[in-house]
Amino acid sequence: MPPSRPASPHRGLLLDLDGTVADSHAMLANVYARLIAHAGAGADALTFEEAAAHTLPDVVAGLCATRPDLDPADLLRRYEAWVYEGYVEVPARTGAAQLLDWARERGWRTAIVTSASVEPSRAWLSARGLADLIDATVGRENTERSKPHPDPYRFALEALDCDGVTSVAVEDSRTGARAAVDAGLRTYAIVAPGAERAGWPAVTGFVHELLDLQELLARA
């Protein structure tokens, strides 16, 4: 048996993008509605909340299943172009820059781990002045399996050379949290006050705002 890889001394702060760092929920809901209208799916389509539990290629494949005139690759390209356009108006979530700056000053390595594509994610980070606070951006292109599979988080840990035991993930969805938890990360879910907490995987805790994490990370 080959020797096991020694644990890295580096800690990583790995954050989802949409809904966690980017306040993009409303924009994505609008783009999804546009996708459904273009596909002519109407009431038969998954709701935006239901679609969030699936990978985008699977959602697109479902829309095309009964429409042989639709090309899944074309539909996916249209969706990504609409999202790219929509990101122009999307603000950063309150506290994003402060948390990332605080973590970097204390030696944490940082990554965005998203199911979106890398290019629009990096473009948005740059436009919001956050790119210099991020060490790595992991997107859909980097792994064969997206969230809820743990592969994106494992890829991020490898890219950062970080120890999964001492690293932390932050997610705003059950799907993303499942990926992080299954990758062995301590995972915090960012939820609105009073939000339903049933059905979440075994997360470490819940927070309402990104800045709530500073005290928690300080004790980590």
Describe the protein in words:
By secondary structure, this protein is of the alpha/beta class. It contains 9 helices and 6 strands. It has a 6-stranded parallel beta sheet with strand order 3-2-1-4-5-6, sandwiched between helices. The longest helix has 15 residues. The two termini are 33 Å apart.
Secondary structure class reads alpha/beta
CATH third-tier fold name of the largest domain: Rossmann fold
Overall pLDDT metric = 91
Name of the CATH first level of the largest domain: Alpha Beta
Point out poorly predicted stretches.
none
Numbering strands along the chain, what is their spatial order in the largest sheet? Answer: 3-2-1-4-5-6
How much helicity do the residues have?
A: 40-55%
Shape: globular
Main sheet attributes: strand count, strand direction, barrel closure? 6 strands, parallel
Number of helices: 9
Radius of gyration: 18 Å
Number of extended strands = 6
Number of domains: 2
Give the SSE string: EHHHHHEHEHEHEEH
In whole angstroms, the N-to-C terminal distance is 33 Å
Taken as a percent bin, the fraction of beta residues is 5-15%
If classified by CATH, what would the architecture of the largest domain be? 3-Layer(aba) Sandwich
In the CATH hierarchy, what is the superfamily of the largest domain? HAD superfamily/HAD-like
Indicate the topology.
Blueprint: E1 12-15, H1 25-39, H2 48-51, H3 56-64, H4 72-86, H5 96-105, E2 109-113, H6 118-127, E3 136-138, H7 151-160, E4 168-171, H8 174-182, E5 186-190, E6 205-207, H9 213-218
Parallel strand pairs: 1-2, 1-4, 2-3, 4-5, 5-6
Helix pairs in contact: 1-4
